[in-house]
Amino acid sequence: MTAAVGVLTAGQAKPLAALADAVTDSRATPAALLEAARGGDADAFAAMVRQCQAPTYHFVLRMVRRPAVAEDVTQEVFVRLWHNLGRIDGAEQLPHWLRRVAANAVIDYWRKQEARERRMRVLREHPIARRVVRPSSRMESREAIDAVHAAMESLPAKLRSVLALRTVEGLRYDELAEVLGVSVNTVRSRLFRARQEVLAALRHSQAAEHLAEMYALPNADEES
Length: 224
Known about the structure:
This protein is mainly α. Helices cover 67% and strands 0% of the residues.
């Protein structure tokens, strides 16, 4: 394995931020770096990572909401980049490629967590838990946000991804279709199902209408 992939995969010894130390030519153009990285130049690849690291990390963080998880997922994205450099037509395609791969890496992470999420959902829906956790008539903002996040996190990965990309990233329907590799009709269908499940999870809360408005959860026939 080359030095570039070694830097990426040694997460405990070399966190992602340490990649900056490996950069020798931050002034090179993206096209030149991509060409050199394709030829096996580890320093050029590290420079590519430096240029793309922050937006990719923050994109992932907005979806997973956990810095440690975002760090791990972002490293996985760049490992995938290293193995797929030949599939990128040009440097101008790199941001789109990274966003699509980052979204898929997040979905993969969520799928690995779905067994735990199902167990937590059962606990949340248990009658005893419902009696103990009674929202007040005026739910505090932090509690409202947590309630929505908990409802979103209980969704299956394919529903959670489309809802997060729509509500957090603000992607249009055609952009969602491109990132997720599905049709626009599939995007609409998944958004409708995701919103219905989130609203159902919140139906016992007296703040449900407020939460729905705050998180922009309209019907699936909204303008795209």
